[in-house]
Amino acid sequence: MGNIQRSKYFESQIVGGDTPDSDDHRYIVSLRLFAQHFCGGFIVSSNKVVTAAQCTFGRIPSSITVVVGSNYLTSGGLVYTPMRIAIHDRYIPVASDYDVSVLEIPSISFNRHVFPIRLGSNFIGAGVAAIVAGWGSTGYPSAALSDSLQVLEVETWNNPNCETALGVTGLLISERNICAGGLSDEGVCGGDTGGPLVVAGEAIGIVSWGIPCGRGYPDVYARVSFYRDWILNQFEDS
């Protein structure tokens, strides 16, 4: 338990990833504070971006900027300021449970660089090939972010095996979570928090927490199918 980190900024990186083709991940966004990347997220409609609750907890909308349409942190993209933030009302920071948040964005114009991703509705079991992406550093414990988006292929776990591998209790790994990854020298961490785990063109997970970084442990995601209705119901008054 002592090595498990679930805070907002636990070592930010994708370890062992590759640089994707330019338009492969048009849904991914960079969340920034004072022009510095701190979390990922993904577009699900023209006015909604999904991320982890730990990325927005305690923040006001005007403190965050959302950059869409670029695979690079230092160039390109369009910048939006959220109008409202919704955090799941059962979010538990100490355990990163119900770790989901939606940002309401002024209408996003879609093009070949910017496009939403579908929200997965089916329960995904073990042994499914998935993709996760982010701008973290490519080695641990380096704190330097990668300027170019990094993509990593991972495989999903069943929850009991994930819980055993992490050595934690069922209070932390539940039907609200999905685990993936677990190879040495590959994995995600805090700067990738909020980004999507993707299977067959659908977001099935939201990067939440893990044991840093690329040390052979599975990473834990919020399971999108559990939160799908909650996500879709946010900001329907706008």
UniProtKB/TrEMBL annotation:
One of its GO terms (biological process) is proteolysis. It is found in: Secreted, Extracellular space. CDD domains: Tryp_SPc. The keyword Hydrolase applies. Gene3D superfamilies: Trypsin-like serine proteases. SUPFAM superfamilies: Trypsin-like serine proteases. Pfam families: Trypsin (PF00089). GO terms for cellular component: extracellular region. One of its GO terms (molecular function) is serine-type endopeptidase activity. The keyword Hydrolase applies. Keywords: Disulfide bond, Hydrolase, Protease, Serine protease. Belongs to the peptidase S1 family. CLIP subfamily. This is Uncharacterized protein.
